[in-house]
Design brief:
The complex is a heterodimer. Chain A is mainly α. Chain A is built from six helices and two strands. In chain A, a hairpin with a 5-residue loop joins strand 1 and strand 2. Chain A is globular, with a radius of gyration of 19 Å. Chain A starts with a helix and ends with a helix. Chain B has one domain: 3-Layer(aba) Sandwich (Aminopeptidase), CATH 3.40.630.30. A six-stranded mixed sheet of chain B has the order 1-2-3-4-5-6, with helices on both faces. In chain B, helix 3 packs across helix 4. The longest helix of chain B is centred in the C-terminal third of the chain and has 15 residues. Chain B is globular and about 55 Å long. The chains are: A mainly alpha, B alpha+beta. At the A-B interface, helix 5 and helix 6 of A face helix 6 of B.
Chain lengths: 146, 178
């Protein structure tokens, strides 16, 4: 499945900020890292700030900081701020074929929601850490085997 | 012979003092957490924890589980409890299953629970680590479980332990009347 651009940006930002909760990170730094315009990112960050997930400080050394609860905030919580991942209106299917196809799409939606709803920001940070550790170990193993 | 117990979050307390039941809640929280094989006397608190969480008391079911996974369990079957200050606060049950669904032998966890008032203290993690250690000792390198997708609390717990979706999909259907 593919998330909308703003949703993905919100998730990247939340995870970047939550990964370094003591540091104020500038919007420009996140924008450069993910190849988006700071103007575009600013709208996403404003939404996160309105929801109380990040706080911002202006001026030199300023930026954004994660102030949410990383052990409680799930990916689904952030996603639903920007899009409805089950966007098909209920009862819109008019034909038997549409209804049958909707049944399959509903199954996919329910699994997607269960996945996003069970993964917290803290769990994601753990996953990032494990993947990076494995990435660091893999070349060393290859060198040893060669 | 019973497998040795694992002690977690153990403060440096004299052994004799640790054996006495602490008098206060604070002292109870400081007592060492012990993960050990289930005993018959643990069934009552296990039934009570399950009844608190599910709202249904299933004494006969738990007796049956105890017979199969606790007392005289076959190799690969594990039923552990978490005990602190002589109180059973949680349990985990699982077994090594060989070539089920065409999959190489792996460890299945089919029940894990912690008394609601004792959660968020690492007891669930300690139970899962303990059963994982037993599965590793039995020679398997994969841990699996299955749960309802709307059981967000336990789903989040397993996720926090590093578990991801596996290669199996659960399917079901209503059987039409004969």
């Amino acid at each position: 499945m593919k998330l909308q651009k703003n949703t993905a940006l919100a998730l990247y930002s939340v995870l970047e900020f939550a990964g370094e909760p003591a540091r104020y990170i500038s919007a420009a730094e996140i924008a450069a890292k993910y190849g988006v315009s700071p103007h575009h990112l600013a709208k996403v960050l404003a939404e996160l700030a309105r929801a109380g997930l990040v706080e911002s400080v202006r001026g030199v050394g300023g930026g954004y900081r994660f102030v949410g609860n990383a052990r409680r905030l799930t990916l689904l919580d952030v996603i639903l701020m920007f899009e409805d991942i089950a966007s098909r209106p209920a009862g819109a299917a008019a034909t038997p074929v549409e209804r049958a196809l909707d049944t399959v799409l509903d199954e996919i939606d329910e699994n997607a929601k269960a996945t996003f709803g069970s993964i917290t920001v803290a769990t994601m940070l753990g996953l990032i850490e494990r993947q990076e550790a494995a990435k660091a170990v893999a070349p060393a193993r290859r060198r040893k085997a060669a | 012979m019973a497998a040795p117990s694992e002690r977690r979050t153990a403060p440096a307390a004299p052994a004799a003092r640790a054996r006495r039941a602490p008098r206060t809640a604070a002292a109870a929280a400081e007592a060492p957490l012990v993960i050990r094989p289930v005993r018959r006397a643990d069934l009552a608190p296990v039934v009570a924890i399950d009844a608190t969480v599910t709202g249904i008391e299933k004494r006969a079911y738990w007796e049956s589980v105890y017979r199969r996974y606790g007392a005289a369990a076959q190799a690969g079957r594990t039923f552990l409890v978490a005990e602190q200050a002589r109180e059973v606060l949680g349990f985990v049950i699982g077994e090594v299953r060989d070539w089920e669904f065409g999959s190489p032998p792996c460890g299945w966890v089919f029940a894990i629970d912690v008394r609601p008032g004792a959660r968020l203290g690492g007891i669930g993690s300690a139970l899962l680590q303990a059963i994982s250690a037993r599965f590793r000792a039995a020679g398997v390198t994969k841990l699996r479980t299955m749960l309802a997708r709307d059981n967000t609390l336990i789903l989040s717990f397993f996720r926090s332990q590093g578990m991801m979706a596996g290669p199996l999909i659960s399917l079901e259907m209503d059987l039409p009347p004969a």
